[in-house]
């Protein structure tokens, strides 16, 4: 099972792909466009070819990327920004913040909590 965190920004998005043990398999930045979405899926498929064995978490459930992923059969979980902020405080006392770090935190958060979180239908 892969757990993937995404941190969105206006023109790009950062991703962190981790396995069930929490080992980071890849950290990448992609353009927020169709080519970037396709590159992201290609990167996921390098680690897992069955979309149903991937759980993807991100803070904004209303984006073109979410539609793109759901149409391809991925499991997508919205995460509340306040939940991730509190999770960051518990994991990173310095409160340092970066997009790749937030992608990693989201991947860790959904790995630890996915059974109690709801998928986007």
Characterise the protein shown here.
The protein is of the alpha/beta class and 121 residues long. It has a single domain, classed as Nucleotidyltransferase, domain 5 (2-Layer Sandwich), CATH 3.30.420. 38% of the residues lie in helices and 26% in strands. Strand 4, helix 2 and strand 5 form a beta-alpha-beta unit.
What's this entry about, in short?
This protein is α/β, with parallel strands linked by helices and 121 residues long. The chain has 4 helices and 5 strands; from the N terminus they run βββαβαβαα. Helix content is 38%, strand content 26%.
Layout of helices and strands:
Layout: E1 2-8, E2 12-19, E3 24-31, H1 34-45, E4 54-58, H2 64-71, E5 75-78, H3 81-91, H4 99-113
Parallel strand pairs: 1-4, 4-5
Antiparallel strand pairs: 1-2, 2-3
Helix pairs in contact: 3-4
CATH architecture: 2-Layer Sandwich
Our count of domains comes out at: 1
Query: Main sheet: which strands, in order across?
Result: 3-2-1-4-5
* Beta-strand fraction estimate: 25-35%
Helicity level, as a percent range?
25-40%
Low-confidence stretches: none
CATH superfamily: ATPase, nucleotide binding domain
**In this structure, how is the largest beta sheet organized?**
5 strands, mixed
Number of helices: 4
What Rg is obtained from the alpha carbons, in whole angstroms? 13 Å
Count of β-strands: 5
H and E order: EEEHEHEHH
* C-alpha termini separation: 20 Å
- What fold name stands as the CATH topology? Nucleotidyltransferase, domain 5
CATH class equals Alpha Beta
The secondary-structure class comes to: alpha/beta
């Amino acid at each position: 099972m892969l757990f993937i965190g995404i941190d969105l920004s206006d023109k790009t998005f950062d991703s962190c792909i981790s396995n069930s043990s929490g080992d980071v398999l890849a950290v990448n930045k992609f353009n927020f466009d169709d080519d970037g979405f396709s590159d992201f899926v290609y990167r996921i498929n390098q680690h897992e070819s069955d979309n149903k064995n991937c759980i993807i978490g991100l803070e904004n459930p209303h984006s073109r990327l979410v539609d793109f992923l759901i149409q391809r059969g991925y499991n997508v979980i919205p995460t509340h920004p306040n939940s991730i902020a509190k999770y960051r405080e518990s994991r990173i006392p310095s409160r340092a913040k970066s997009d790749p770090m937030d992608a990693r935190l989201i991947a860790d958060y959904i790995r630890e909590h996915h059974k109690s979180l709801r998928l986007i239908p």
